[in-house]
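S.,

Sequence below, as promised.
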Amino acid sequence: MPGRPPSRRGWNGLFARRLIAGALILAWLAGPIGVIPAQAQATGGLIRDAEIEATIRAYAEPLFTAAGLDAPFVQVHLINDDRINAFVAGGQQLFLNTGLLMKSKNANQVIGVIAHETGHMAGGHLARLQDELRNRTIESIIGLVAGIGAGVAAGNAGVGAGAVMLGQDITRRGFLQYSRTQESSADQAGMKFLDATHQSSRGLLEFFQILEGEMALLGANQDPYLQTHPLVPERIDAVQAHVDQSPYSNDKEPAEFDIMHDRMVAKLVGFLKPLNQVLQQYPTSDQSVPARYARAIALFRVSRLPESLNEMDSLLRDAPNDPFFLEQKGQILFQNGRIKDALPYYKKALDLKPTEPLLRQEVAQVMLETEDPQYLKSAIANLNEATRLEPNDASSWRFMAVAQGRAGNLPEAALAQAEEQLARGKKKQAKYFANKAMDGLPMGSPSWQRAQDILGVSENDND
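The prediction came back faster than expected:
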């Protein structure tokens, strides 16, 4: 989460890759949803985690394909917010709150929500806003949404809309009206995609029933999902009717999906909840894999290193080739200053999951942290692959700039800085570094041409 290289001190490093905004106000596809409470503001932001993202993609990609979307190009983002919410924005980008994931009971419930979101993406809902957001960075998407949410919080949606210059016609009423006309459509599309992939819609129904209970109990203090996904009885009835007649309603998800779900929840709880809450949910008497995983992470966060490593070692004895257990032990060692001890765990994890860009980024970062010149070539190779897989990841470009600088390739370092600034939406700075790179790059080389491309997209920027 931090917007800087992770510190080896503290827990919020390689799991929580970057903090996008300190006080986020989030939105669903169809409109503003309210203000994050103070506790979430302290830790709120977008987080990156290879295992959790891989889990969500395993759930989502069959649905994306059934919907006719180009599955590899749909981006998945995790938001550190304890409330239940999910939304799509800026084209094919899916956002899920950690609160929704932690409160889900099984994989099918998460899949049901993703199916609904896929219905919004496939339907091109709220195209006017999507056109406004499509070419913006994730940071600016959140900034735009924050302006709208600020207006809602103030009781004047026009204030928020004006603040982000979306035009006077985009108001809270317009968003919510559009939402109400689209929700049942997204439900129907989502259930169609679930049927197409031979999956049950029961999880979506269970999710709605959970929210229905919250509506009755919480009144105005409802999760934001309810504010922008009006849960009228007709919607629940329609999903129930589908469950009653679908031939797939009693089909179970693959066993590994629920295993992945339980590990995902345990990992989030371990990283995001206080130790006493973690131990309450996963007491030491519980020797299941998720419980040991949650405790290992929670103990690591409070610097109880021997106990944390004991839990991780017990997991690795049972599953010595689990890439994400290896990654986690690497992180625990790395952030406790044992950099060279951590590197073999990261490298083995990457050997097992070579297409995970975050693992490549992490391996490169740890190599750079050793300050050993023998690793520079490998670090650059890993970052080349990470940026190929995720060309808009600013952190990989930042590490690339460091690596190229240490290797004495100053024009390439400047080009990497230009890429980083472009990924952050800072076109003026990107233009500066692109010009600096061109001064030292061979004319006509691929890097020189890329610097020219960056200059081209930055040409009319006024930031």
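The first helix runs from residue 38 to 43.

Coffee later?
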